[in-house]
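queue> holo job accepted (farnesyl diphosphate)
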Amino acid sequence: MNWKNIFKYKKSRNAESLLETVLARPVPRHISIIMDGNGRWAEKRNLPRVAGHKQGVEVLRDIISTSSQIGIAHLTLYAFSTENWKRPESEVRALMSLLVEFLQKEINELHNNKVKIYMLGDINGLPQEAAREVEKAMNLTAANKGLQVNIALNYGSRMEIIKAARKIAREVSQGKLSLDDITEELFSEFLETRGIPDPDLMIRTSGEYRLSNFLLYQSAYTELIFTDKQVFWPDFNRERYLEAIYEYQNRKRRFGGIDDVQAGVE
Ligand code: FPP
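queue> job finished
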């Protein structure tokens, strides 16, 4: 961020003026979020971990409606990884109940706002009620053309890549594909995110600097924003979200090339 931008940024800290600033430039097409720190937020307040997840869902509502309002095409949320099954059974149960409750309560409003719900991950591994609710939400909203909310549930990126490699290998062995057909674009079409553009921006809260097996192939050129460690997911809000988008808008994306200015093209 250059000095001019820092000045503008300070002037526009308030969420609504920040909104105008953000809307004056192209917004990212796809934002992915690792909603981290719910447990620590709760522990800091001597509350059970599930209280942090509950507060996390409140924040999620705000972020979904802001995304829809500013014209983001895709929002991908890491809600439950394949590794999260290692948590105590009571916490897993609470997370699944929160998901079911969220979908039951919010689906009509989401649908009215043309939001499309989509799931990344293995639906078969989910408890029956959660799988049923996710399927219902996906079916109801399948034709919607507004914001697409991709919920990564029982999702792990390495396994997603392995499954894609297996499918491609099968098609090669059946003669449906040749080795030369295997390009970056073709590989993308075998991932769970087929048809979804790669994330432009990934946000992770709570000051942890890693990707945790989330969208590894898709994030090759994604801009990464990590919040300070005091900002847990339940502390995140519309203003912080807009600030992150503003920071993204001030980054130079080179995709391995050089700046237009450096290359003599202005
Ligand atoms: C990370 O915090 C958060 C999760 C593993 C779950 C995120 C889920 C929700 C916000 C709610 C359910 C989702 C939907 C889509 C309604 P953590 O528990 O790892 O926190 P810690 O690192 O402080 O322990």
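queue> The CA atoms of residues 5 and 250 lie 8 Å apart.
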